Amino acid sequence: MTTTGKLLDMAKKMADAAAAKAIEIDVPMVIAICDKHGNPVLFNRMEDSLLASMDIATNKAYTAAALKCGSHEVADASKEAGSLFGLASCDKGRMVVFGGGLPIKEDGVIIGAIGVSGGSVEEDMIVAQAGLDVL
Fold first, then answer.
1. Which label site among 4, 55, 80, 83 has the fewest CB atoms less than 10 Å from its CB?
2. Where are any strands of DSSP class E within the chain?
3. Which 3-state string (H, E, C) describes 58-81?
């Protein structure tokens, strides 16, 4: 029997919840969800969202999966005087060192990540968290 897969089913719910929050705050967003290896699972671009947000959201999700933490958690360490300076240029430029990417955990184990882009960093983080909160 073929199924869509547990993570894809979760991703659809997350994307719907994140999109609802984006509509609530009146900011068109791009929502990207990947598996624990950073491979795309779901991509949702809201009408009138920023073109640049397509890569940014995807890379925020990738960063959260690759580093096993929120993309905002490496912001200070990746500044010029920080211990992770240069991180943003690593991994073929895919690392995003500001908020909007969060790992997806199940029973304490990271199974994927969500990345959101389109608003301010704070708005992106709120929308990403709304996606996680539906789980």
1. 80
2. 30-35, 40-45, 101-106, 109-117
3. HHHHHHHHHHCCCHHHHCCCCCCC
